[in-house]
Here is the input.
Amino acid sequence: MATNDSELPTMPRTWRPLGPRIAAAVFGVVLVGAFAWLWIQFDDETRARVNNLEKATVIIIVGCGLLLLNGLARSRVVARADGLTIVNGYRTRRLAWAEVGTLRMPQGAPWPHLQQGEDQRIALLGIHTSDGARAATAVRELRALVAAHRP
Here is the structure.
């Protein structure tokens, strides 16, 4: 596939999912707000009966929820001159262009993936189909970059 350089996005180029980032922010506010509202609604006697271990447990549960939402929100795909950086949650992979496989976007899939051989795929959570046209543009741009960097 011959690709014209004028069609290629400028690098570095970062793709981030908009919908999941908004959802993570909203759910984070709802999670913290719901527990804060619940605590405020308790009368003084009920608050006095909650021991420190129970408070710590609730704080840890809310913290874990916020960590999961943050992991979702920080997902991204970054194209640079030397290759791709893929951040899925808290895992980061750096691939040289020679290591990048075939970009696939199966019908109905929530995000594209890189096919790295018959049995290895790398999900690209930084491009999410819930973003509609933004996701289609991101896939088109990334495909053009992958094609341009094929040996």
Remarks:
- The CA atoms of residues 18 and 131 lie 6 Å apart.
